[in-house]
Amino acid sequence: MDGINLSNPVFVTYAIASALLVLKLMGQGWMTIYRMMRVDGGFVSPEDLRKTPLNPNPRPQQLDTDDYVDRSRRMHRNDLENIPGFWMAGFLMVIVSPPLWLAQCLMYGFVAARAAHAVAYATKQTHDVRATFYTIGSLIVIFMALYVLWAILF
Questions:
Q1: What is the CATH number of the domain that holds 93?
Q2: How many domains does the chain have?
Q3: Whole-angstrom Cα distance, residue 57 to residue 84?
Q4: pLDDT in tens, 67-98
């Protein structure tokens, strides 16, 4: 655990990548809220139809699926399915002290893959395009986990 400090460049790399991913994850939630407010709909829970200061004119149509809102919600769900694996594999990677160049390629590569996936999703690219960026990110996390296992077991 000596390497969990800011004098370790691998940990700094992990900290920067993790902070960027936190901003991505939390920002996507705010993007969904923005889109719900913009279209005055895309709500998912029946209690959202109660009259409140933020919803002064509730109506049943606000519960209809709105692709503009739902696309952001799907992007958020995708982040929630993928980013936590990076956080765990990345933290373990710091502990086993990989070469800095490898850590930077993998960790910043994952951030870039998630950013590219988000752009592809937001701009309605085909599944093939989104899957390419997902695959890159997924293979990075799998490699990191295997690297950690190799470092510990051999």
A1: 1.20.120.550
A2: 1
A3: 38
A4: 999 999 999 999 999 999 999 999 999 999 99
Residue type, 64: D
Write phi, then psi, for 125 (nearest 5 degrees): -75, 165
Tokens linked to 36: 């719900």
% helix, strand, coil for the chain, step of 5: 75, 0, 20
* Element of type H or E holding 34: helix 9-39
Query: Does residue 1 lie within any of the structural domains?
Result: no
Tokens 């990677």 belong to residue: 93
Asked if the structure places residue 3 within a domain, the reply is no
Q: Which of 16, 9, 21, 14 is nearest to 111 (CA)?
A: 21
Does residue 63 fall inside a structural domain?
yes
Could you tell me if residue 2 is inside a domain? no
Pair 43, 36: CB distance under 8 Å = yes
Domain that residue 146 falls in? 9-153
Is pTM beyond 0.85? Reply is: yes
112: Cβ contacts below 8 Å, ≥ 6 apart = none
CA distance 154 to 12: 26
